[in-house]
Amino acid sequence: MILIISTCKERLSELEYVLPVQKLIKHECKIVHCTNLNKRDIPSANKIIITGTALKDFDYFATDWSWLKVTNVPVLGLCAGMQVILREFDVELSNISLIGPHKVEIVKENKLVRDDFTAYFLTTKVGFGLEALAQVDDIPVLFKHPKKKLYGCLFHPEVLNENIIENFLKL
Amino acid sequence: MKLGILYSGGKDSTLALVKARKNHEIACLITVVSENPHSFMFQTPNIHMTELQAKAMGLQLVQVQTKGEKEKELVQLKQAIQQAKKIHKIGGIVTGAVRSTYQASRMQRICHELDLWCFNPLWLKDQGELLDEVLQSKIKAIIGGVFAEHLDELFLGKEIDKKMVDKLKNLAETHKINAAGEGGEIETTVLDCPLFKKKIKIEKAETLYENYSGTYAIIDAKLVKK
Fold first, then answer.
1. In chain B, at which residue ranges do the beta strands (DSSP E only) sit?
2. Which of A22, A129, B141, B184 suits a disulfide with B11, CB 3.0-4.6 Å?
3. B2-119: what fold?
4. Could you tell me if A149 and A74 are in contact, meaning their C-beta atoms sit under 8 angstroms apart?
5. Chain A contact probe: residue of B18, B124, B130 with most A CBs at under 10 A
6. Where are the domains of chain B?
7. Which pLDDT tens digits describe chain B residue by residue (226 residues)?
8. What is the ipTM metric for this complex?
9. Alpha-carbon gap: B216 to the closest alpha carbon of chain A (Å)
10. A58 touches chain B (CB under 8 A)
């Protein structure tokens, strides 16, 4: 089962940030809002995807994400999802905006994407920490935790880079 | 939250409105009337119908004119949204964007600069499913413009009913057009939907078609009892 964790405060945002991700997943899926997450759902998932949300939405930071430090289930955080992973691992977030399509350069070989690509961004916060796999200028936009299977994309792969989600699901 | 709808009068922005209204209060419609028929951002055929559509729904309309010069038209859009924020106290904008990162990212930037929420409830929706949902939502729209090979003048002015949806889906398969016209292949005008207290009756229209491009321009229309 693939567990999709929504970070969206507004139901209307879920049509934009959760549904398109769900549609890419061919396996059995369960969608849970981050405030309603039952900790027992985590070990029973094969993979976990934490979605993005609207630019003005930061309510998800108030949720308890401490399970990220102890889980062995592979996790992919998308935009807001990446931000919560970074923050949980004590990476400070800076106010830098990336909105719209940007060219992304691969800086480390990885299992999610091989060649440089263009990605669609909607973020006002970035973090410099963990292991950068790809970047826009000097900003890390794709990373992996050095020891765990925790991945994060600062962009929205469901828009222009569906293969990244497909490759994550194959891990 | 009070929301403003970026409204072109077509099926997509009307469907976005229908979805937004389920959880939020719709305070106004925002329309940009572009003089440029090739605008990257805004629909042009029958854009003047938004006045009648707003009246039919009992909603306020914030309308601005633009010459439609690329990027400059965004300044006018921003001014219109600013005006809507001030007058109607909106907290966010809803658009009918489906796939265009050009349109979506520009709207996101404007909303971010104005400290507004931005909602795109049709984002990445499958084109065929979108057309099905237009029908399920009882949105009655006609084709007001065609701008692609294989879409001839016979499409102009026709209602998007089940038969037309099947035809467009078939063309999407055989000729790689976007079934719902996301690539600008078709533009639509809504004449009725459950949010309309009265429906629009076309009194006079003119069909213009040349070189795989044409419009069904509504010259005169009025609201009538449903």
1. 2-6, 25-34, 60-66, 92-94, 117-119, 140-146, 186-192, 199-210, 213-224
2. B141
3. Rossmann fold (3.40.50)
4. yes
5. B124
6. 2-119, 139-224
7. 999 999 999 999 999 999 999 999 999 999 988 877 666 566 678 999 999 999 999 999 999 888 777 777 888 899 999 999 999 999 999 999 999 999 899 999 999 999 999 999 999 999 999 999 999 999 999 999 999 888 889 999 999 999 999 999 999 999 888 888 888 889 999 999 999 999 999 999 999 999 888 999 999 999 999 9
8. 0.95
9. 32
10. no
